[in-house]
Amino acid sequence: MTEKSKPKAKRLNLDDAQHYINRELSMITFQERVFEEVEDTSNPLLERIKFLAIVGSNMDAFYMVRVGGLKLQAEAGIPRLSIDGQTPAEQLAAIRKQAAKLMASSRDVFHQSLVPELDAAGIHILNYEQLDKKQKSQVDAYFQEVVFPVLTPLAFDPGHPFPHISNLSLNLAVVIRDDKGQERFARVKVPTSLPRLVPIKRSSGGVRKDGTVPHNHYFVWLEQLIAHHLDSLFPGMTIKEYHPFRVTRHVDASIDEFEGDDLLAMMEQSVRQRRFGSVVRLGVHKDMPDGVLRILLDNLNVDENQVYRVDPPLGLASLMELHNIDRFDLKDESFLPYLPPAFSSDNVEESVFAAIRQGDILMHHPYESFDAYVHFLRAAARDPNVLAIKHTLYRVGKDSPVVQTLLEARREYGKQVAVLVELKARFDEENNIEWAKRLENEGVHVTYGLMNLKTHSKVSLVVRQEGDHIRRYVHLSTGNYNHVTARLYEDLALFTSDARIGADATDLFNYLTGYSSQKDFRDLLIAPVNLRQNFEKLIKREMKHAQEGRPAHLIFKMNALVDKGMIRRLYEASAAGVKIELIVRGMCSLRSGVPGLSETISVRSILGRFLEHSRIYYFANGGQEEVYVGSADLMDRNLNDRVEAIFPVKDAAIRRRIKDEILRSYLADTVKARIMDAEGRYTRPNSENGREPYYAQGRFLAQHR
After folding, report:
1. 456 is catalytic
2. Which residue is catalytic, options 228, 456, 475, 545?
3. I need a surface site. Which of 196, 382, 489, 508 has the fewest CB within 10 A?
4. pLDDT tens by residue, 212-267
5. pTM of whole model > 0.85?
6. CA distances (Å), 690 to each of 139, 686, 693, in order?
């Protein structure tokens, strides 16, 4: 057969919905992988409890944001199809089926595995009926002294409207009978200001040096304690029955920034209104009678398909309280992050800047200490040669040493300080509002970013006078400037005094804080300005290398891959023969290993002790390797609706470290990795002929010890 007579390869229709995985179902699949860490008995017991609490917290957020949005679309009749061609109603039905299974499995493992193992370890979660006389006396006294004054029973009858049920609140639906035999309904809210797991022996705790346990820990559920004292809340009444229930509301209220001139005030109002969002999930115990459930359904405006009947406990996130117990023998081994000498010297003001001038410095958190950045910022605040500090803040948390240092730089040392505070960082709005006010009160120049764009980039710029010249020192990161999560999240950060990156950082801050229509950056890839376009060019360049026989290889590590345009480019690159290895922690809408579509693409997800949070993009580039790192995942929101910063790694040694030490370790992981198949299912890697298990996070820990 001649070349001309060969049949042409069939061109795939990349718009075909079957080539994509639904992002919402992919998110639940991710939670199922987190749940596998609960089931994994090689994890310490309290770490398994922690993972179970994380599953509960993540599913709360999923319902508040994603399910709430789909519910509004379905009710409004918006015919918007998902990437895999499903209507909002179809997605809600599929979500319910998959989520209900996960919720049931979570309770089964809790009761059948975790509770017995906790008992064996001396940690006992008791029902009120299981308490002995002395224990009941202790908790009864606690109820009268601490709990009772906080409670506010609310009646529901013709004279009392149905009370507002706040988001994520745990409540008791109480049916009482008065002295005339008439039944009435009341609601009692379980206060969130008190521990959900009430400690019975306050002195219990700790482990002896020989490993023995001197005291057992005993807890009772707060809602059970309240339930057994309902007669004190309704004196003269007969308590007929009580049933716990928990409400999840839609919280993602839209903010129209063009309709107001004070974003700070609008965000404060939005946070206040959040508790009034529509109910998207009602959790009840399996034994709640239909009559009581009907009262809740009618008054909360909830459909039966939004009800989840589960075994207790309602609200798994509160199990995180158990992780605070001082039982180091039941937790991951502690470690001390490495701090480079230049960032811990007595003369840190000089040593930090001198070290960065000598060459770029890569930090791999949490194995290398976030304190390095705090010391850098403090050096900048106190150095008389530093003229200005500019900073983006997204999720800094409470008691932030970063913000405290920025305040000190302005208040104590008179530095010119400009800070962009992202008020729209979901679930961190209140913290950020308070920090913005404090910064403004100290004379810091505070801005809130661009209209209808979240600022998600992680950039810090220090401008320093050195002789007759100005030098700019830049810190770029994949993680938030949060000292707490920096010990829990895996991230990369770079210190550099590169002139081109410094100039780009200046232009970026001008773009964020002033009237700037900056379109061209020297080295930084900025969303929504040029990131998508440049990534498409880089992928197409890799395709050309493959077609012309040069090394063509992509390794992308990110939190999520759901942008259809980027997935199409990767499919096209696979068809061109580019080898593509994807490390995607969470949602992934791409199908890997499909003949004729993605044969050269593999997808793996890495979980473990630390939350894999860094975003790394490697391009073989025909042998002239390039590596980019930054804040953006390949999601439409990151590429279109956020200000993101991706930076090139110019230092050859750092590029080798990222590729050969970091990325290769993740690709070799056989312990915490899960491999995706063409149907979107994840399984553990196949063990090979006596090969030793390889755990990437464990290797990084050992290396930095």
Report:
1. yes
2. 456
3. 382
4. 555 789 999 999 999 999 999 999 889 999 999 999 999 864 433 333 344 445 44
5. yes
6. 54, 11, 9
